[in-house]
Design a protein that fits this description.
Elements: H1 11-30, H2 40-46, H3 53-56, H4 61-70, H5 77-83, E1 89-91, E2 97-99, H6 114-127, H7 130-141, H8 146-149, H9 154-162, H10 169-174, E3 176-178, H11 187-198, H12 201-212, H13 221-226, E4 231-235, E5 247-249, E6 254-257, H14 263-274
Parallel strand pairs: 3-4, 4-6
Antiparallel strand pairs: 1-2, 5-6
Helix pairs in contact: 1-7, 2-9, 12-14
Length: 275
């Protein structure tokens, strides 16, 4: 997961983050999604949800493991002295060094101070992007009242802005229309759903992007209906060729699917097309 750069803090930079907040608000209003794999701490801070060391794990697993190790109640003095050599400093996400105490660069962490050091370290990492997150909140509040967003969990907020990270084929099928000359029992429609269910998660995302120019679908039936989003399977305009590639109208989420002679041919053509 990505986090924000604490050194990107000029007035121009903060305006950029504010604009990102505006885009997030537009996503919530319109149902158009941004593909943002942001760390949980950002979503939680937008709606004032409690944060903790578990949020560090998403963008710095090494730091999380180190803090877990030095705060282990079974850690001995000898094990600490032999394996850890730290000063009261912290490397932030953008690789800048921050002193956790005055002259922290010259203060070595000893065994009895390790818990204090860990707490200061977690606090520094959890607050390093506050200025940037405040700018995102400011932009978001221009479109959606922050007081309303506080009714959501951070996961619900992320889903409204970014959509579902994985493609739910059953949900997509429920929100699909067929052209008049196709039925659910026709070979090409039946084969398509079988092929999609057999695909890897990565290829499912590629398929959605091929058909719609977006990587994430609405997360629920209600979101599909609210934003009037429907996936449409149409007959290919060139009906005389059996082995041509499928085509897509990305503005309308339409797939033009030829009448292939076998499921295997269809699968090969779809995989080639989406890649």
């Amino acid at each position: 997961r990505f986090t924000l750069s604490s050194s990107y803090n000029s007035s121009t930079a903060l305006n950029h983050f504010e604009f990102l907040g505006v885009l997030m608000g537009i996503c919530i209003r319109t149902g158009v999604h941004l593909t943002l794999d942001l760390a949980s701490i950002i979503w939680k801070k937008i709606i004032d949800e409690p944060i903790g060391i578990e949020d560090v794990y998403q963008y710095d697993e090494g730091l999380y493991n180190m803090i877990t190790a030095i705060t282990d109640k079974d850690l001995t003095v000898d094990a600490f002295n032999n394996n850890f050599n730290y000063t009261f400093t912290c490397e932030l996400t953008d690789r800048t060094i921050k002193e956790l105490l005055p002259d922290g660069n010259n203060l070595k962490v000893n065994f009895t101070e390790r818990i204090k050091y860990a707490n200061l370290l977690v606090s520094a990492r959890l607050s390093e992007c506050d200025m940037q997150i405040d700018s995102i909140r400011k932009g978001l509040s221009k479109i959606i009242p922050i007081s309303l967003l506080k009714l959501l969990t951070y996961k619900e907020l992320e889903q409204l802005v970014c959509g579902a990270k994985t493609v739910d084929i059953a949900l997509l099928k429920q929100n699909t229309c067929l052209s008049p000359d196709s039925t659910e029992k026709s070979n090409k429609v039946r084969w398509l759903w079988e092929i999609l269910n057999e695909m890897s998660d990565e290829d499912k995302v590629k398929f959605v992007k091929f058909c719609w120019a977006q990587e994430r679908l609405p997360a629920t039936n209600e979101e599909f209906q609210k934003n009037q989003i429907r996936f449409t399977i149409k007959s290919h305009t060139d009906k005389n060729k059996k082995n041509i590639f499928p085509r897509a109208d990305t503005c309308f989420f339409n797939l033009e699917l030829p009448e292939y002679t076998s499921k295997e041919i269809m699968k090969n053509k779809i995989i080639q097309a989406i890649n």
